[in-house]
Structure formats: structure tokens, C-alpha cells
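Narrative of activities, Objective 1.

The group set out to show that a structural description can be obtained from nothing but a protein's sequence at a throughput compatible with the screening campaign. Below is one input-output pair from the validation batch, recorded exactly as produced.
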Amino acid sequence: MSRLLAGALVALYALALADSAAAHGTLSPNLAAPGSTARFTIEIPNGRDDARITGLRVTLPDGVELEEIEARQPRWAASADGQALTWRGGPIEPREFDSFAFSAKLPDEEGELALSAQEQYDDGPGPSFRLAVTLAGSTAGTGRDEGARTLALTALAVSLVAAAGALAAAIFSFSLLRRKRQCSVPKVR
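Output recorded for this entry:
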């Protein structure tokens, strides 16, 4: 039984880590054609209750050429310095989100591109996190991801975390019940 409980806890931990990576932000589209120019949107949620997001810094990998950086919300100022894109202003209040956009010319080779990102809170910088785009084949005719796929994947991740939590709770409850039955002493009359 303890192996099963340990396995369930490891699975729950792995799912929580995967979900926490997505909690910092998502990049869409996450699939693009090599050599193309693509417009990307980064969705940044503020999962903290005690601070507001006042900035975002994204570093493009080598081989990616910035075409345009956008400040989609009038309250944000956007700037670029080499491969570093910065948005300042906002803020993004706790439990809210905002989006940031840029266009870039992508390398000709297939593979995965990793962008480094970091949120700036009103009480200091947050941890760095990774955003990725896969360069593969041609994406002609696939259209832009307007968030439906991202929403579906997020819902799936939340469902899996909830299911793993329920499984872990059931296993824990069963082990407690089993121990209680083994330790119970019949009443003497």
C-alpha cells in the first residue's frame, strides 16, 4: 500500500510542477513554420494575492529576429534592446491576467525555441520561466490559436491535478481506515 501511496504522491507532485510552469504564462501559437514571421501572444496571469505585476521581460533565443513589439494595452510601455523585450506599466492585479504581443522572424531550422521570461512584481522580480515554440513543417491553413487550445490544455491539466488529488486523498483515507480496523480492540461487556 505504501508503494501505491508514494507513486500517487509522486504523480501528483509531477502534475503540480507541470501546472506551475504554465501558471507563469503561455505563448501562442506554440507551433510555427521554420523561416516564417509569426505574431506571438503571451498571456500572463497573476497568481499571487499579495503583489501586482508591473513588468515583463522576455529574452528571444539566438536566430530569432524581432520584427515588432506591441503594447496592446494603453497602460503598458514596450521596448526592445537586442534580444530582450520589456513591457512596463500595468499593473496586473492579483487573480487577473493580461496579454503581450510581438512579431518575429524565425530561424529556418526545425526544432524547439526556448524563450526566457521573468515577471516584475511591485515587490521585486519573480522567478524566471520558460516559454517554448516548436518549429516544424508548414503551419499553413492551421490558423492562429486564439486561446481555445490553451484553455483546453489548462482545463485538462487542472482536471488531472484534481483527479490525482482525489486519488491521493482516497488512498490516504483507505490506509487510515485499514489501520483503524487493525488497531481496534473489541469492547468488553
